[in-house]
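S.,

As promised, the pyridoxal-5'-phosphate run. Input:
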Amino acid sequence: MEYISTRNKKKKYSFKDVFLKGLASDGGLFVPKIIPSFSSKDLKKLKKLTYKQLATEVILKFCGDEFKKSEIKNIVEKSYKKFRINNVIKIKKLKKMSLIELFYGPTLAFKDIAMQMIGNMYGIILKKNNLNINIIVATSGDTGAAAIDAIKNKKNVKIFVLHPHKKISNIQRKFMTTVNSKNVFNIALDGNFDLCQRYIKSMFADEKFRSSIKMSAVNSINWSRIVAQVVYYFYSYFKVAKLEKKINFSVPTGNFGDIYSGYVAKKMGLPINKLIIATNNNDILKRVFNTGIYKPQKVKYTISPSMDIQVASNFERLIFDVHSCNSIAVTKLMQELKINGKFKIKRKILKKIKLSFCSESVTEKETKSIIKNIYKNEKLLIDPHTAVGIGAAKKISIKGKTVVLSTAHPAKFSKVVFEQTGHEPKLPGNLKKILLKKEKFKRLPKNIKKVKSYILQNV
Ligand SMILES: *Cc1c(COP(=O)(O)O)cnc(C)c1O
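Predicted complex:
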């Protein structure tokens, strides 16, 4: 299995390179040279597997050079042991659609599914190669918590998490700042998520800084996260659809990582009709659909903060794919974005994107009313991100069944859920105690030098 960068298809990388680097040094994202696929005979066999068995088969396809099957099986078992249900995810049938609940991991958002696995992969890869690394990650709320839980107390690795100060929910913050582990550092940056993400990208581009601290990334640009997320598209498809029937997935979208995993599943042979890009008021991707112009605007703050993103980093992977893997064309567009703050997608290319995707945005008012109505009609409490997924699916009429990804537990956003339903969703089990624990984080100004120097002091 060979990997390349979206900005240079000549240079080859191994899974280990891709895993440890996160982002290519030319600024591009890693993608497999060829996406592996399953035949319809394979699909029939895969349908019979448990979630963990299926995860082993799918992940093996992408990192078979680095790990033996037995190693992957162990990584999967270990990663999902902490989950509150044995089969990792749960499918709920509603009257008009199905939900797949992806929030049974330790920090109550779908990001645990990939992050727990990454944590255990680091464990093996670092030990095998006798390496030390430092993970730097930006979070709009949920990534940081999931990454910290996966990395805390691990050997040979420290983690620095940048979150936008006062722009994430209290519970989201507490999940990160109450973890008392020597290898965990929280930074509250006076800025928004896009700035946090820009700082990380700039640290990566700074060769000297990057190599001096042996920097690694677990943001949604990390390829192994995409791989771990592919699994639940297959699993849920097998549970809700008859083999060979095409279905749709509606995906609450921010950085385009989760939905891109769906696209990979489709490329691997899963019968998917449309992937619905569901966004809140930060509707850059919907605007791309309408105009062909990709132009980040100012971030708008919403009740679904994990999607308050204007620069959908993983979109570059799709751009690469629909340009028939032409890394020169991608580099040009990305330069255009850097210089002019926007780029235009050719009509022919946009048409290609529309074969697999559609997009809808959901307003704050609509999101709230969906939370209210789902409670009224289905007696189910849902979080605002999930509500955006449902809202987008309702606005679009397409053929076939639609499955909505339910990306966070409602208790993570209990304030708005309570306001709409009169019911306060409860934090499961022992998680209640984080509300009382002491918080620890470092607040830093909008100044990348200060952030870098804080990191250098602590590695
Ligand atoms: C991160 C996140 C999203 C967005 O996922 P992307 O992969 O960034 O598109 C949606 N919902 C929740 C709850 C999240 O934490």
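The mean pLDDT is 94. The longest strand covers residues 157-164.

- D.
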